[in-house]
Amino acid sequence: MVTSGTTPALATEGLTRRYGRRVALADCTLRIPPGRVVGLVGPNGAGKSTLLQLACGLLAPTSGKVSVLGARPGTRLARVGFVAQDTPVYAALSVADHLRLGARLNPAWDAAFAARRVAALGLDPRQRAGRLSGGQRAQLALTVAAAKRPELLILDEPVAALDPLAREGFLRTLVESVAELGATAVLSSHLLSDVERVCDHLVVLTGGRVRLAGDVTALLDAHHRATAPPPPGADVVHGAIVRGPLPAGTGAGPVQLEELVLAYLRGEGDPR
């Protein structure tokens, strides 16, 4: 899904964030086009949550720049939806209370969209959020974030604690909501199967640095799996995964998304 426009949904330049002596994000330069569903992947401590919190304006950079929808983070709050890692909801409030609160706080609130999502999910509007299952709470948090009709939807590992069935339902709702809104979504996850299922753009972070970024189809086309030892001079990412074409006559096969990501997570080469 690609929408018109040239202003990136999220852009960074030399973005760095330190916590004392620890570097959480280092010299991060990114440009995420509008209309993508972006998978942000990396091991624990890679800097994923830090990057998303910087994009939301919850943190300030130590150095470098970050822009969201062409402006400084925090100045486009009405156009950005955010679902944090623990998919927070108010336990004492009912589902209907959450929708009423969303309507009061968001000028572009789409009550019809919210009502449709709640009905489609089978949520009881009278049910208190504290009595919902983990999957239902995640769905409610996503509904509230999406019903403000954001241009950018940021999700920080929202399915990490969900069982496979609840995770599948959440991802399906995410894809449906993004398609209806025409929005960009950035989904942080360490579950590569989820990223492969719903994302068309990929960002790989390791050690606080961007190792790989781009549209999934283009990245897969630009890499190969050597079926024999790669010849001297080949741009080896890790193991048998090679970036760029191999010499004529060298055996090569296509690369799957999971093995591409794992190669960059394991590799020690320069960022791509």
UniProtKB/TrEMBL annotation:
InterPro entries hit by this protein: AAA+_ATPase, ABC_transporter-like_ATP-bd, P-loop_NTPase
The keyword Transport belongs to this UniProt entry's keyword annotation: yes
Q: Where are the transmembrane segments?
A: none
Keyword hit for Transferase: no
- Domain ABC transporter stretches: 10-232
Identify the PANTHER family for this entry.
ABC TRANSPORTER, ATP-BINDING PROTEIN (PTHR43335)
Q: What is the protein name given in its UniProt record?
A: ABC transporter ATP-binding protein
Organism of origin: Dactylosporangium siamense
